[in-house]
């Protein structure tokens, strides 16, 4: 899935207990977003059909040569990242809980003549093993803005480990949780880094702009970096690297400057991490 937009919509949040029907709310919210996203400049499906990649250069470098490798993309939304890996030669599978998103992904695969290298499955990430018939993969990839939609990272990490071949690895790229504690102007700490309670959000628009949503409610969770790393370690995965990046994909704070398809702090400005990436391997034994 793409950028969650949590920091941009802090003003719409109210703290509260975990909403019991969070999965239903989130699925309805994401189903509603698909038509808006597919028509947006943010996703620019026309450029993608013409050959554009949605992967950042550091992702291609950090993941290494994926040619001929079996890659699973969890929470793939409309499949552009999945198909970008397929363009690099991977045998890809994208999984997402939104049926409209998967329909769009399958159409994109046909339009880009990548259907031979990419298949798409409708399922919640927690049901991935059953939905994929106990298959295993060389690489499990999770892209930006995915983890905030998951309440239990220990459970998620165990699922990831179970989907990997021995010697295979998780490659994760995410919004850095430290940037979530800053206010909308990016100048001061306004939110509790260690507050991991479910946040109930009611906002009329998705992060791409466009028409109002019908299903406006969702639930998200903040996951400190230590929580992510500990969940992976508890699942038996070995951390190969953790890299923090001073770039992001959208105008998260007013001070950021756009350079190409990335947003950075201006020269001489104090920086905080905006993204992080990590690779964690399932040992051979």
UniProtKB/TrEMBL annotation:
Residues 72-168 form the Methyltransferase domain. Keywords: Methyltransferase, Transferase. One of its GO terms (molecular function) is methyltransferase activity. The keyword DNA-binding does not apply. GO terms for biological process: methylation. Transmembrane segments: none annotated. PANTHER family: TRANS-ACONITATE 2-METHYLTRANSFERASE, TRANS-ACONITATE 2-METHYLTRANSFERASE-RELATED. This is Methyltransferase domain-containing protein. It comes from Saccharopolyspora shandongensis.
